[in-house]
Specification:
The protein is α/β, with parallel strands linked by helices. Helix content is 26%, strand content 22%.
């Protein structure tokens, strides 16, 4: 079931052209920047987009320019996330094992998850209740419980990634909001 939904959502997302993805990403990022949770956050955790995900580089640049502490995930081989603070997109990142940009461990420092004020989460698909279908490794499902209670969890997605019902399992973590190019879905 989950793999079928994952394949469906990935196929829909891959049909977007590079220009469409960029324009839709800009619209989604502008919605994030309008959120009180983003404007008030001192420390924001963002994923670094991979393949045809919503482009997050522009949001990282905005957060750094706004004086926010920017944290990005270092995905470990044991399927855990180490949140690492970056200060510079060009100098602090490298391509990791899966071709995903990740923080350089010799330049960036890990931070306590309790210091994070807002987390932007990637995913393959979401529903209107905030249920999330990830890539299947469980990185974020294991990381989210380490955050302070009440830290907002926001998913970035294209509208084509919104599916009717995800049917979550007990270990799946849901989002507080899902942000697309067209809307902010409060869950």
């Amino acid at each position: 079931m989950k793999q079928e939904l994952r394949n469906q959502a990935l196929a829909l997302r891959s049909q977007l052209s590079a220009d469409q993805r960029y324009l839709k990403s800009v619209a989604a990022v502008n919605r994030v920047k309008s959120l009180p949770a983003y404007r008030q956050a001192g420390t924001v955790m963002l994923y670094l987009n991979f393949r045809d995900e919503v482009e997050t580089t522009i949001l990282v640049e905005d957060a750094l320019a706004s004086g926010k502490r920017v944290v990005v995930p270092l995905c470990n081989r044991d399927r855990t996330i180490t949140p690492m603070e970056i200060a510079n997109l060009q100098d602090d990142l490298q391509f990791g094992t899966w071709g995903i940009r990740e923080p350089k461990t010799d330049r960036c420092s890990p931070i306590d998850p309790a210091e994070i004020d807002l987390v932007l989460v990637p995913g393959v698909a979401f529903d209107l209740k905030g249920n999330r279908l990830g890539y299947g490794a469980g990185y974020y499902d294991r990381f989210i419980p380490l955050l302070r209670p009440g830290v907002p969890l926001a998913a970035l997605a294209f509208e084509v990634q919104i599916l009717p019902d995800m049917r979550p399992e007990a270990h799946d973590r849901s989002m507080n909001m899902v942000i697309t190019e067209d809307r902010i879905i409060n869950c």
